[in-house]
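# nightly structure sweep
# worker-07 picked up a monomer target from the shared queue
# config: single-sequence mode, recycle default, output format = structure tokens
# input follows
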Amino acid sequence: MSLQNEIVVVIGQGYVGLPVAMRAVEVGYTVVGLDVDERRTNSLREGVSYVDDISSEELVAAIESGRYTPTTDYAAAEGFDIAVITVPTPLREGLPDLSFIEDSAASLSERLKPGATVILESTTYPGTTEELLVPILERGSGLTAGTDFSVGYSPERIDPGNATWGFRETPKVVSGIDEVSLSRVQAFYDRLVATTVPVSGTKEAELTKLLENTFRHVNIALVNELAIFGHQLGVNVWESIDAASTKPFGFMKFTPGPGVGGHCLPVDPSYLSWQVRRKLGQSFRFVELANDINDHMPDYVAQRLMVLLNRKGKAINGARIVLVGLSYKRNTGDIRESPSLRLIDVLADLGAEIIGVDDRVEDYRWPAGIERASYTEATISSADAVVLITDHDDFDLDLLNSATVPVLDTKNRLSGATSERL
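# output follows
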């Protein structure tokens, strides 16, 4: 069977799913891009990409090939050969919400045929594939996993905006519930990426993803706390980090910031902490401490702002605060779990007037209740204080360096007379 006769269904057409779908089309598969968000599917049908790593030109080429169909209708998945689930797994009041996985699995199960393969990419706790996904697929289809169809897990490793390590260049961890499943999952990804890394089981693959992001989370918390104490001690922690990073072994560079965000941090480590508590009755102290530090960085940013304003004899209540860059990551419009959202809430509670500057964030994702402004000298000069949260390449930092109002630099990018680093 040629690849174009094989139907690949990718559920979720966001920062993870759309790159998978586009690459599958590129290598020759016929792809159905499923997403419950009608706004997204309409944009995709019109050839307008909302994902930074996928250009509209690439999307149009996929549509014109006749092998990519964006839709909200699961009927288009009928008779699929491979399904990849890339739906969100958010936290709701500190607890994992797997409802998107459950809904996707239930809908797929009604269309599951013998010989098909279902792959989960969504971040989750170890055991989800075997304990949650497989029973739903079996119950809805009447088929038996490992006998009638294959199931695997392959953690997503998308790094939005990374021009060096894109989807196809980044090694892909693959797993299956049995040897046949592993071979089918690996064969699929071998066509999409340069390198696959097989592991012995789905739990090991699920833990791999959580390990990667817990490692980042804990080390970011370390340098964030160092930044707080370094400032109080009169030490330039940024210079110390740069100096330490010259060591060619035993050190990896992490930098402070206003908090953590995105679809991985701070959500993924909490999945691991939750599972350890649920299954073992113990606390994952490193994760919980890192959560505490990183979650409160926006509060620390607000405190530093109050100090800057006090020096000018200005209260934060009624102050006009311009936030430059609202997305959680440089050169993307992704605002999910961004520390800017928490900072906005804190500043609003303190009575500040908040203005946001970030052309990359789509209108429908723009935080409610704050003014949207352009990155201009007029916007900056109208402020009582400015905070650089996300240093997109399209921000001319000379504008902030020449500012006459106080500027809090959370990225160590500025050298102006009125700038102060985090």
